[in-house]
Design brief:
With 306 residues, this protein is α+β, with helices and mostly antiparallel strands. The protein has three domains: 78 residues, Roll (2,3-Dihydroxybiphenyl 1,2-Dioxygenase, domain 1); 51 residues, Signal recognition particle alu RNA binding heterodimer, srp9/1, CATH 3.30.720.110; 127 residues, Nuclear Transport Factor 2, Chain: A, CATH 3.10.450. The protein is 21% helix and 35% strand. A hairpin with a 7-residue loop joins strand 9 and strand 10. Helix 2 runs parallel beside helix 3. The longest helix has 22 residues. It is globular.
């Protein structure tokens, strides 16, 4: 027997899944839209014009599978009487995840020390889903010989993941978010602050390779100079992080372009990989790679989408 959660977002399911992918590292296992169903929905089940909405999706967060749907697409999701529990091994990971879930949401109980966990807090995310964030407790040290005046609760600790790995992944995701904010703000100094002095960059634009942060900074300046303020399109999707003690890498899909004066969007998809090294206690990008798929015969870049 297996019990799983099924969440109904009433029209915001795809947005929610993207949010959980970014904040919690969710991995989408499948997604079907109403228009792709082999059988037509029952009369009244789907609002007119909602055929492109999500009929069913399942995604994995850590070791847990969660199901979701847009339901009847009424635009009025309601998540009452339950909460999803998120357990992590370290306070640093809890702090980062709690803040990420609270972005656009509402803190119900700040992270604090309790008798049953080193850190515990409750937050409703931007979609109204309530989360209980807990740092997994350790069993207390056996008492010295003698009589105990208070009964001490003893907890069994379940190791969900290596604490160092969990913290490193959270730190890398925070770095990606910080870098993306700098790009969208067209903040050159903010962008290059994430790079090592000897960074080696491979970009899909202009040069074969760029060596050193000064060269890469000039390249970024040239790229941003082509964008009118407020018209740039730069999105990061499907971020995946693999981290060790002092080396890590992140992969993602990016959509880059701009909006013309007539309102038409011109943007294309690329692949991105960033290699990180931990230096002086800080994760720094030592290699960044953007690439676009192309046709082997014509050498023309392909306009493909995820």
């Amino acid at each position: 027997m297996q019990v799983q959660s099924s969440l109904f977002f009433d029209g915001r399911c795809e947005e929610a899944v993207e949010f959980y992918t970014k904040t919690l590292g969710a991995e989408v296992m499948m997604l079907m839209r109403f228009q792709d169903s082999p059988e037509p929905p029952q009369p009244g089940m789907v609002q007119p014009g909602a055929e492109h909405k999500v009929m069913h999706t399942s995604f994995r967060i850590g070791e847990t599978m969660v199901m979701a749907s847009d339901g009847q697409c009424t635009g009025q999701p309601s998540f009452q009487g339950f909460a999803l529990s998120l357990t992590v091994p370290e306070a640093a990971a809890a702090e980062w995840l709690f803040a990420a879930l609270a972005d656009g949401g509402q803190v119900q109980m700040p992270l604090t020390t309790t008798f049953f966990a080193p850190r515990f807090g409750m937050v409703a995310d931007r979609f109204g889903v309530s989360w209980r964030v807990t740092v997994a407790p350790c069993a207390p040290v056996p008492p010295c010989a003698g009589r105990r005046t208070l009964r001490q609760p003893v907890f069994e600790r379940r190791t969900l993941m290596n604490p160092t790995k969990a913290t490193a992944e959270a730190e890398i995701r925070a770095q990606v978010d910080s870098w993306l904010r700098a790009v969208l703000a067209m903040d050159i100094e903010g962008i290059v602050s994430h790079y090592a002095p000897d960074i080696l960059a491979f970009d899909a634009v202009s040069q074969l390779q760029l060596k050193g942060v000064d060269a890469y900074k000039k390249h970024w300046q040239a790229c941003l100079a082509m964008c009118r303020p407020g018209t740039m399109i730069f999105e990061v999707h499907d971020v995946h992080v693999t981290a060790g003690d002092d080396v890590a890498f992140a992969t993602a899909l990016t959509r880059c372009g701009g909006t013309e004066e007539n309102g038409e969007e011109k943007a294309g998809w690329m692949r991105m990989t960033a290699g990180y090294r931990k230096m002086n206690g800080k994760w720094t990008v030592v290699h960044e790679h953007f690439s676009a798929p192309f046709d082997m015969e014509t050498l023309k870049v392909l306009d493909v989408q995820p």
